[in-house]
């Protein structure tokens, strides 16, 4: 009897798939990394199901890869050693909402938009917005962040407790529901960002927030990237209640105009959003206007209407798709790094120059309020020389960031794409990370080949 047949007996035949289309869906993500199929896709419906599958895989030394929606970009969920893709989409319930504690307990297969639809009934929202409608388990696994992190923080800041199935099948909780704790090691921080290499997240208790009384969004254009970044720094220094600060370069605006039939000025542009009460918001916006004007802002437009705000942010969120739709036959390679704010303008300018030097078509954009920026470029994967140029460009961007006290990834995670930079970035601490991996997963079944390679 094959191990797949054993799995079907362990759960139910419907929960174990070897359908070719299903295998292909679980053999890729949204990045440029090559396809690799799992042996089977398993759909657990409960923590108990996960325990059974994990213990089974551990006993037989079968690779096990947790899978959410596959929206990751660095090959996190691609099973390069075969094995079991553990699809958590059936575990998608809101288990408990505690409005007065500003907490919610959910299963890992729930998406952030599904959660916010439920929270809206209670006057609450979940803050982390990575752009893609990712699952909350996947967002925790990669320590996702996104456009709102400048005000509310990243995924790690929102996680109060996780239920985790360890590689031996044991279930642990990594935190609690108290607002703070000084007890024991910070296991939340260990599991968040571990990309499925230490265990399987089966429940999350998350911090949520009250929906702001008033929201205003705006768009400001500048003559240079330096002027835009200087304005960002001054806005942050001023104490203004800013929730989003996104920088999009001139090439990005050009593509947005082309695909969406818009007429934005093709200049470095800040997309801004303010959260607060109506009286305070008016003061904050007026102060922000003074600041951006001091830094040579050429055009400033604010939107109070919720529909207009949604359209504004749709432009920002769909920027990558604007390049994809405008480049048929090509694949998008996207990388992200983070640098100290004082290094941000120089890093973005260096990236733009490097893109042009390599002769590639690409864009630079980012969450400039926290120093995290992205470079995306469209490449012909059949053209080996062009692929080599793109990889050389990616390497240049990472080395530039690391040389200035930054990190090789601010939010996309390590996966396979950034694994080669771990020792360079972390030094001796990388050995500590590997020791933790070995202690928790001695048989190496959990998402092998990701993060912990030499």
From TrEMBL:
Residue ranges annotated as transmembrane are none
| A GO biological-process term | lactate catabolic process
Judged by the first EC level, this protein's enzyme class is oxidoreductase
GO terms, molecular function:
D-lactate dehydrogenase (cytochrome) activity; D-lactate dehydrogenase (NAD+) activity; FAD binding
Q: Determine if Transit peptide is one of this entry's keywords.
A: yes
Superkingdom is Bacteria
What Gene3D superfamilies does the annotation carry? 3.30.465.10, 3.30.70.2740, Vanillyl-alcohol Oxidase, Chain A, domain 4
A Pfam family per the record:
FAD-oxidase_C
Q: Which UniProt keywords apply?
A: FAD, Flavoprotein, Oxidoreductase, Transit peptide
Q: What does the record give as cofactor?
A: FAD
Q: Where is the FAD-binding PCMH-type domain?
A: 34-211
What does the similarity note say?
Answer: Belongs to the FAD-binding oxidoreductase/transferase type 4 family.
Q: What protein am I looking at?
A: D-lactate dehydrogenase (cytochrome)
- What species does this protein belong to? Halalkalibacter oceani
